[in-house]
């Protein structure tokens, strides 16, 4: 961190994260094909009544849908605020050093990273987030990635704890087996990420020695920032994380209420969190196909098949479709601004920065 605070960063290898190239490559196209195939198989296998679903959507309460939409987008503001805590924990924003964007600017970066996750596989949006922060503020890419990993650790732990609370509410229902299975899947993911963190501590020297020389400084920065992210403000970080996840739950609650379906609080909590768990799997962009099928299966604990599909699709119109539409607009606007900024730099002007 000394390099950050003195304003002299150690040289680091920074990959170029190009969404345009990634979006058009074979791996991305195959992952989209897999997601679409899952949706098609699911809808045809279970003989879904598309006319009935459309009628459900048309009669839904637009104000409750709007409430779900707004609370979901407000969660990005909370995510930007939380990220600012983590970044400041590792020394960003201190003088002298890179000037951080305001929390709202960080929310904008996070939103674009979610757009990236929705259009390319393998969670590339996490790297794209750090890349954008470097472009906008000059912050170290490897240190930024460390804060993103720390954020994922916090998210997975809080998600699992809330999922466990929801599962307790379902343990005496007829669907106890499903609740336990999803909870075990969540536990596996938490254990895996904890093992990654433990391995980083236990084998730090071994990992650094095995890396090519040009990556060793970058890994050292990444390692240090990951653990420095936890050194302060943990009560605030945990509190904001809880609020974020309850906002995710509120989105599903308003969507289901808008369709006129009364769901138990435990089920709404469980389905919303399990949905988030599925979306983290790097198999398809944004969990496409996996989330829709998984949500529908879980909602069928209390709803009919058609009702469950209606809720799942309407919910995903917020958490996936709207991200793709508005994210694409913001992405191309950002590209346009960067082109204009490049012209200004060539003309001798100082480029502006977000924040």
Notes on the structure:
The protein has about 350 residues and is mainly alpha-helical. It has one domain (about 15-345). Helix content is about 75%, strand content about 0%. The protein has 15 helices and no strands. The chain has helices at about 1-5, 20-25, 25-45, 50-60, 60-90, 105-120, 125-135, 140-170, 175-200, 205-210, 215-230, 235-260, 265-280, 290-300, 305-345. Helix 4 crosses helix 15, helix 8 (about 140-170) packs across helix 12 (about 235-260) and helix 8 (about 140-170) packs antiparallel against helix 13 (about 265-280). It is globular. The two termini are about 25 Å apart. About 40% of the residues are buried.
Beta percentage is under 5%
Q: Order of SSEs, N→C? A: HHHHHHHHHHHHHHH
How far apart, in Å, are the first and last alpha carbons?
Answer: 23 Å
Largest sheet: none
Helix count, DSSP H or I runs of 4 or more residues? 15
Fraction of residues in helices? over 70%
From the alpha carbons, calculate the radius of gyration and give it in angstroms.
21 Å
Mean pLDDT: 83
How many structural domains are formed by the residues?
1
Low-confidence stretches: 1-10, 343-355
How many strands? 0
How does the overall form come out from the CA principal axes? globular
Q: What structural class is derived from the secondary structure elements?
A: mainly alpha
């Amino acid at each position: 961190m000394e390099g950050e605070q003195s304003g002299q960063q150690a040289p680091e290898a920074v990959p170029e994260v190009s969404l345009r190239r990634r979006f058009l490559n074979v791996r991305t196209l195959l992952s989209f094909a897999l997601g679409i195939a899952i949706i098609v198989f699911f809808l045809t296998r279970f003989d879904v009544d598309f006319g009935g679903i459309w009628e459900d959507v048309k009669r839904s309460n637009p104000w409750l849908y709007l409430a779900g939409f707004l609370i979901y987008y407000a969660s990005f503001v909370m995510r930007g605020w939380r990220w600012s805590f983590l970044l400041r924990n590792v020394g960003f924003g201190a003088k002298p050093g890179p000037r951080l964007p305001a929390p709202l600017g960080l929310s904008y970066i996070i939103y674009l990273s979610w757009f990236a996750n929705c259009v390319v596989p393998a969670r590339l949006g996490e790297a794209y987030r750090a890349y954008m922060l470097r472009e906008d503020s000059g912050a170290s890419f490897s240190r930024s990635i460390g804060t993103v990993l720390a954020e994922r650790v916090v998210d997975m732990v809080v998600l699992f704890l809330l999922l466990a609370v929801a599962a307790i509410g379902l343990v005496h229902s007829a669907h106890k087996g499903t609740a336990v299975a999803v909870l075990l899947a969540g536990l596996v993911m938490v254990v895996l990420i904890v093992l990654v963190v433990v391995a980083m501590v236990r084998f730090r020297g071994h990992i650094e020695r095995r890396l090519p020389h040009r990556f060793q400084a970058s890994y050292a920065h990444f390692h240090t920032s990951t653990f420095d992210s936890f050194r302060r403000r943990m009560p605030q970080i945990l509190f904001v994380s809880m609020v974020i996840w309850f906002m995710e739950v509120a989105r599903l609650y308003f969507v289901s209420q808008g369709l006129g379906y009364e769901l138990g609080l435990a089920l709404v909590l469980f389905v919303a969190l399990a949905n988030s768990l599925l979306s983290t799997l790097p198999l398809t962009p944004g969990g496409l196909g996996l989330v829709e099928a998984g949500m529908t299966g879980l909602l069928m604990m209390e709803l009919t098949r058609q009702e469950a599909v209606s809720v799942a699709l309407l919910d995903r119109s917020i958490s996936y479709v709207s991200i793709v539409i508005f994210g694409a607009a913001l992405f191309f606007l950002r590209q346009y601004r960067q082109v204009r900024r490049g012209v200004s730099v060539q003309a001798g002007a100082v480029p502006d920065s977000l924040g």
